[in-house]
């Protein structure tokens, strides 16, 4: 069988992937589930340094995500500068305090109580790295707009892979979405076709870190088979 084929004028490669025996497939899927089931949102992150090469690999993994028409409509801004992290924290806490004091409903605030979170976000300075994910709502070619497709879905999948990669590397993170996040565009001087999507502090969990004793929904509560 040929290794390549031309389809619609474009080169395609013969796809090959490992095919495991049933027993090994069962074990690998169980091992991965058990590993990911240990993943938790961590708000207390150590300032211990993380090599840039690790951050590079995490971002490369996220960039393997599928995307509409393979447009890859994402930009990952990795920040280790203490000055920038402090500026981001000040701006984020300003928005968060406004949200906690005036924007959030009583029900929302009550739902957050088990998480033991508030408007203060020290992890934005403590973490050795911040990764800010921007979605490219359209492309700019010669200063002209070109469509991207399924941008939110594509970037969301990439963020899922990024969070998975962070956990698999033995690091901790949390999904931070101060609203609005437009201050990130200004601080990081991003172009007009990009919008902030998600902010992830990345580092080792602090030795004193605690997480809520939460239970995930059972399979029967999240899966429907036909």
Sum up the overall morphology in one term. Answer: globular
Distance between the termini: 36 Å
Enumerate the strands of the largest sheet in spatial order, edge to edge or round the barrel. 3-4-7
Query: Order of helices and strands, N to C?
Result: EEHHEHHHEEEHHEH
**Helix-strand makeup class:** alpha+beta
Largest sheet: 3 strands, antiparallel
CATH top level label: Alpha Beta
What share of residues is helical?
Answer: 25-40%
Q: Mind telling me the CATH superfamily name?
A: NADH Oxidase
- The protein's oligomeric status is single chain
Rg, Cα atoms, Å: 20 Å
Poorly predicted segments:
none
Number of domains: 1
Strands, total number? 7
Q: Explain this structure to me?
A:
Strand 1 and strand 2 form a beta hairpin. The chain contains eight helices and seven strands; from the N terminus they run E-E-H-H-E-H-H-H-E-E-E-H-H-E-H. The protein has a single domain, classed as NADH Oxidase, CATH 3.40.109. The chain is globular, with a radius of gyration of 20 Å. With 226 residues, it is an alpha+beta fold. The strands form three sheets. It has a three-stranded antiparallel β-sheet. The longest helix has 22 residues.
């Amino acid at each position: 069988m040929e290794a390549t084929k031309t389809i619609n004028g474009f080169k395609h490669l013969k796809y090959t992937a490992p095919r495991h025996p049933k027993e090994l497939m069962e074990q690998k899927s169980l091992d991965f589930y058990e590993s990911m089931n240990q993943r938790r949102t961590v708000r207390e992150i150590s300032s211990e340094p993380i090599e840039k090469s690790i951050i590079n690999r995490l971002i490369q993994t996220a960039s393997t995500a599928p995307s509409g028409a393979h447009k890859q409509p994402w930009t990952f801004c990795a920040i280790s500068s203490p000055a920038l992290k402090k500026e981001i924290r000040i701006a984020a806490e300003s928005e968060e305090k406004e949200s906690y004091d005036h924007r959030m409903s009583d029900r929302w605030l009550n739902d957050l109580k088990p998480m033991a979170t508030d408007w203060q976000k020290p992890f934005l300075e403590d973490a050795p790295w911040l990764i800010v994910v921007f979605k490219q709502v359209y492309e700019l070619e010669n200063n002209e707009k070109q469509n991207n497709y399924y941008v939110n879905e594509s970037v969301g999948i990439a963020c899922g892979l990024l969070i998975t990669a962070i956990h698999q590397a033995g690091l901790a993170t949390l999904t931070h979405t101060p609203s609005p996040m437009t201050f990130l565009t200004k601080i990081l001087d991003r172009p007009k076709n990009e919008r902030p999507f998600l902010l992830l502090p990345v580092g080792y969990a602090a030795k004193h870190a605690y997480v809520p004793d939460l239970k995930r929904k059972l399979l029967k509560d999240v899966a429907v088979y036909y």
